[in-house]
From TrEMBL:
Keywords: Membrane, Transmembrane, Transmembrane helix. This is Integral membrane protein. The chain crosses the membrane at residues 31-49. It comes from the Bacteria.
């Protein structure tokens, strides 16, 4: 599933940009950063399972 991995990567980077923009504009929100970390870990997990 190469398309799904690319989609997850784009979604993760897009979420990072959105959370960073939110933080700059309105201040930090721990739940947003927590959500982004979880999304990043899921993306890394998908990449790791794909490479094995």
């Amino acid at each position: 599933m190469p398309g799904s991995m690319k989609t997850m990567g784009v979604l993760t980077v897009g979420a990072l940009v959105a959370v960073t923009a939110y933080t700059v504009a309105l201040g930090s929100n721990g739940w947003l950063w927590f959500g982004w970390v979880v999304l990043g870990l899921l993306t890394l997990g998908m990449a790791a399972s794909r490479s094995t």
